[in-house]
C-alpha cells in the first residue's frame, strides 16, 4: 500500500463526514484511512461505519493526549509507505492523492506539504479567516503559497506527507501541545531529509468558525513560536517577529492618538490635531489594502470588510501570544507547560 491517511479527531463528527466523502471521490485509490478519536465526547464512529464499505478505513479510540500523540498512535498502526497527515477540518479535491503521486514521481521527497484555500461553500467568516491565513499581506503567504515565500517551506499538519520510515526514524511528533508540526518539520530538516512544497496538492481548509476561536488558535501559535525558539534558537526568523512588531506598532499608534486627543482637550485644538489624527493613517492604509485585495479575491465587499477584522485578529492574536510567552519563558524563566496555561482543545 502506498499511502496511509492519518486523521486525529476531537469532537468533530460532521467534519469527518465531509472529509471521508471527499476521500471516496479520489481518482487514485491506493490508500487507507486511519481515524484516531482523541478522547472525544462526541465520537465519529457512526460516521466512519457508514464509509466502511467505500474506504479501507480503520477507526481507533484513545484517551485524550493531543493531536501529535494521536497522529503517532495512528502511524504505529498504518501500513502505507507514506503517511499523509490531515486535519479533520479539511476537504480534498478529487485529484489530491494523484497530485501527490505525480510530484513524488517527478522528484522524490522524504517529507512534503501543500497549500490550502477556501471552498465556495465556506461561510463568509471562514473565507475571511482563510484569507488572513494565506495572504502575503498578513505573512500568511509563507505557509504554503505559490507566491514567493519569505522563509523556507515547513509542512504543517493540516496537509503534510512523510515517508513512513523517515517518520519512524525521527520518532514522529513530540509531546508539544501546539506547534508540534513545526517542531517535527524542524527535525526533518535537521536530519538532512528532502522536504518540498507540492503546490498542486492543495486542500480546502475550514479552520475556525468564528473570530474568538480564531484568536485563541493564533494566540497559541504565538506561544508555540517562543517554545520552538527555546528548543531551537536558530529557528526564529525575521518573519516570525513581524506579527509582534505589528501588534506593538498598532498599540503605540493608538496610544499616541489618545495622547493627542487628551492634549486637544486641555490645549489649543489646532495645535494637537495632527497628533490625534496622523497615527491612524498607516492603520487605515493597511485596512484599505486588505479590503481591496480580499474583495478582489472573493468578489465580495462583505468578505473584504471581514478580512480586515480577520487580519488584525491573526496578527495581533499571534503577536500577543508571542509577547506573553516571551515574558513568561525568556524573562521570568518559566517552562513550556507554564507558558501554555490552557490546552488547545478546550
TrEMBL record:
Give a GO molecular function annotation for the protein: transferase activity
What PANTHER family is this protein classified in? GLYCOSYLTRANSFERASE, GLYCOSYLTRANSFERASE 2-LIKE DOMAIN-CONTAINING PROTEIN
Taxonomic lineage of the native organism: Bacteria, Pseudomonadati, Bacteroidota, Bacteroidia, Bacteroidales
Residues spanning the membrane: 238-260, 272-292, 304-327
This protein's name = Glycosyl transferase family 2
Q: Name one Pfam family in it.
A: Glycos_transf_2
**InterPro entries per the UniProt record, alphabetical:** Glyco_trans_2-like, Glycosyltransf_2, Nucleotide-diphossugar_trans
> Taking every annotated instance into account, which residue ranges of this chain make up the domain Glycosyltransferase 2-like?
4-170
Determine if Transmembrane helix is one of this entry's keywords. yes
Sorted keywords for this record are: Membrane, Transferase, Transmembrane, Transmembrane helix
Amino acid at each position: 500500500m502506498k499511502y496511509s491517511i492519518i486523521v486525529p479527531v476531537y469532537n468533530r463528527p460532521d467534519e469527518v463526514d465531509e472529509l471521508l466523502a471527499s476521500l471516496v471521490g479520489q481518482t487514485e485509490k491506493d490508500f487507507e484511512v486511519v481515524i484516531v478519536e482523541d478522547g472525544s465526547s462526541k465520537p465519529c464512529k457512526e460516521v466512519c461505519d457508514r464509509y466502511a464499505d467505500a474506504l479501507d478505513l480503520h477507526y481507533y479510540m484513545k484517551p485524550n493526549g493531543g493531536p501529535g500523540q494521536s497522529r503517532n498512535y495512528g502511524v504505529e498502526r498504518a501500513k502505507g509507505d507514506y503517511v499523509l497527515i490531515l486535519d479533520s477540518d479539511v476537504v480534498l479535491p478529487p485529484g489530491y492523492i494523484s497530485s501527490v503521486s505525480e510530484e513524488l514521481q517527478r522528484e522524490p521527497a522524504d517529507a512534503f506539504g501543500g497549500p490550502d484555500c477556501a471552498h465556495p461553500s465556506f461561510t463568509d467568516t471562514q473565507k475571511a479567516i482563510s484569507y488572513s491565513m494565506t495572504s502575503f499581506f498578513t505573512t500568511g503567504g509563507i505557509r504554503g503559497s505559490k507566491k514567493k515565500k519569505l522563509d523556507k517551506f515547513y509542512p504543517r499538519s493540516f496537509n503534510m506527507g512523510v515517508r513512513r520510515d523517515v517518520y519512524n526514524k525521527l520518532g514522529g511528533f513530540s509531546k508539544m501541545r501546539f506547534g508540534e508540526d513545526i517542531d517535527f518539520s524542524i527535525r526533518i530538516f535537521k536530519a538532512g531529509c528532502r522536504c518540498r512544497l507540492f503546490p498542486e496538492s492543495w486542500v480546502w481548509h475550514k479552520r475556525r468558525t468564528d473570530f474568538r476561536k480564531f484568536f485563541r488558535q493564533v494566540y497559541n501559535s504565538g506561544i508555540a513560536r517562543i517554545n520552538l525558539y527555546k528548543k531551537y534558537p536558530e529557528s526564529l526568523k525575521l518573519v516570525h517577529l513581524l506579527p509582534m512588531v505589528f501588534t506593538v506598532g498598532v498599540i503605540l499608534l493608538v496610544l499616541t492618538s489618545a495622547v493627542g486627543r487628551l492634549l486637544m482637550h486641555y490645549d489649543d485644538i489646532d495645535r494637537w490635531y495632527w497628533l490625534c489624527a496622523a497615527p491612524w493613517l498607516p492603520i487605515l492604509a493597511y485596512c484599505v489594502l486588505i479590503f481591496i485585495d480580499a474583495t478582489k479575491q472573493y468578489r465580495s465587499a462583505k468578505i473584504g470588510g471581514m478580512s480586515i477584522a480577520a487580519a488584525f485578529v491573526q496578527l495581533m492574536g499571534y503577536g500577543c501570544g508571542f509577547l506573553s510567552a516571551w515574558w513568561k519563558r525568556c524573562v521570568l524563566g518559566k517552562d513550556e507547560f507554564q507558558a501554555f496555561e490552557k490546552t488547545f482543545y478546550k
